[in-house]
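User: Good morning. I'm curious how iron/sulfur cluster would be positioned relative to this chain. Could you predict the structure with it bound?
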Amino acid sequence: MGGGQRPETLAIVLGDQLDEASAALRGLVPGRDVVLMMEVAGESRHVPSHVQRTVLFLSAMRHFAADLRGRGLRVEYVTLDEPDNTGTLAGEIERAVRKLRPRRVRCVRPGEWRVLAMVMESCERAGVGAEIVEDEHFFTTPDEFAAWAQGRRGLTMEFFYREQRRKTGYLMQGRGAAAKPEGGVWNLDAENRESFGRDGPSPMPPAPPRFEPDAITREVMACVERVLPDLPGRLEPDAGFSWPVTRAQALKALQAFVRERLTGFGPYEDAMWSTSPATYHSVLSPLLNLKLLNPRECCEAAIAAYRAGKVPLQSAEAFVRQLIGWREFIRGVYWLEGPEYARRNGLGSHGRLPEFYWTGQTDMNCLRQCVGQVLDTSYTHHIQRLMVLGNFALLAGVHPKAISDWFLGLYADGVDWVTLPNTLGMVMHADARADAPKGVTGVVGTKPYAASGKYIDRMSDYCRGCRYDPGERHGPEACPFTVLYWDFLIRHRETLRANQRMAMILKNVDRMTRETVVQIGIDADLLRRRLGVTPGGEGSRADGKRRGGDSNS
Ligand code: SF4
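Assistant: Good morning! Here's the predicted structure, ligand included:
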């Protein structure tokens, strides 16, 4: 760190706060104030972070720092390989505050309870209280969400979403209390469940644009390989890094999505296809979560394309709903439920995360393809996460913390405020409050997203290349998803029975003979042991230490 005059304001900018209009930067005066940015190994190790996720964060940070310097601001930038680097955010904040002795420290609300506490406590220790300002990237503050949630029996995203539509005016006809949703309905999800059929998409969806690494990114890649050589994921030439790392590149990615893939996004939102990893998904979530893109400009670009007759309403609405509905709702839940939320385990699952989540080595084709994609790119789209990678963890009874940490560290868009409620609530159906009324089994989800191999077969081509049969639940060909699906329903039937939305499916369980129920339990136990979910099985993690220790505890 260089020396200099005592600054008036020290503005901390964290790796996921690369917003050029950030409230932390507002009013900073060149020559008087200082921006602090830090690369620390601890943030790539507290959960094992994919090497491409780490490179993306650090490269985007270095480009952002260069932009700030271009605006005349002084940036104190701590690199990962700086000899004095303490390796932790707390250590670096404390060191900078003691050295620079600013009159005030300002930071936008971090995206994680742990980091919020770390920022406040380290500033306190260094003798200057931190001013935490709200993140204006979002449409709704945590206080506004809490006011909306107050007094409700359950939190339903759809009702929250409708209020967001009214508030923003997005896809609304008319103004004020008389405003109506475009097309007469709020939600066109029922039209958005198409598969690609047996023959696959024709033509293939255009792939998202690739951005070749520039000199800064290449420098970061070398630095990460040197300082953090044991991170999971691949960074080889044939699985090259191609993420956007600047605001200009992020805008190009947004334009390409709206121009080339938004039309198909709505109808094929739930579809998967092995030779089209992204299908019609935007792949913009890492750029949004780093704040290189603003959700307003994304929504407005989609709405403009709809108004120009270039995309159907079902696609524009689905995309806008993700941004102003689901994303904001999830963040609201994260701050509303508090740090204790992370420890919930509503279905009492304690299994280990199988080793193949780190290697892709499994004979289940859907999981091999999806994990392979994660290892190659630090990304899969939403349905691969929910219905393959997450679904398996739910059905097998993996501990929610183990799979949450995996999603957090392995995905380029992984940040706690979004990953935790999505995994704990939506994927694992494990976030029920201890005092929840009977029939309310989750905060985020109204029912578990549990599905057998038949769902995966209907929505993808994975099963065609697999040694298992998605329709079988017993015998050597039995699909593990199908075996574990019925076992899941059997194990949790009394808990789920209070949920009206599960009544139909549980009738199938009730009709089973006692012999069938026992056989499914035996088959599922054997599977869990073989796949390493149950300790001692051959698929257990062999080298947890290398990847940051056992996160199942
Ligand atoms: Fe996955 Fe089962 Fe289909 Fe194989 S048969 S790809 S394990 S769902």
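The mean pLDDT is 93. Residues 364-366, 453, 456-457, 462-463, 466, 468, 470, 479-481 surround iron/sulfur cluster (CB under 6 Å).
Let me know if you'd like a different ligand tried.
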